[in-house]
C-alpha cells in the first residue's frame, strides 16, 4: 500500500500476506493452462527446459515467461547442472501431488 505523508513523501507499507492469500495467489498462477501443464510434467521429477519444448510445442520465450511466473509464485525452483538448466517443483507435498 502506498500513501502520502504529511510532508508529501511517498511511503510504502508492505502488504501482509496470510497463508490463505498465498494459496489464492498460487492457485491463480496455476489457473493458466500452460503453467498447469508444466507443473504436471514436473510431478515426474526435475525436467530440463528443452524437454518442455518437446512436449508443449511452444516458443522458447513464451515457455521462459511461464517458468518465470511459476518461480516468482514459489512453485518452481530452477538450477543449473553443467550447461543445462533444470526446473523442479518447490514443494512435493500438499497441493501439487493432487493435480490430475
Describe the 3D structure.
The structure is a single chain. With 100 residues, the protein is α+β, with helices and mostly antiparallel strands. The protein has a domain at 34-100: Arc Repressor Mutant, subunit A (Orthogonal Bundle). Helix content is 43%, strand content 20%. The protein has four helices and five strands. The chain has helices at 19-30, 33-42, 49-56, 60-72, and strands at 2-4, 10-12, 47-48, 76-81, 84-89. The strands form two sheets. Strands 3-5-4 form a three-stranded antiparallel sheet. A hairpin with a 2-residue loop joins strand 4 (76-81) and strand 5. The longest helix has 13 residues, at 60-72.
Keywords:
disordered N terminus, Arc Repressor Mutant, subunit A, alpha+beta, globular, single chain
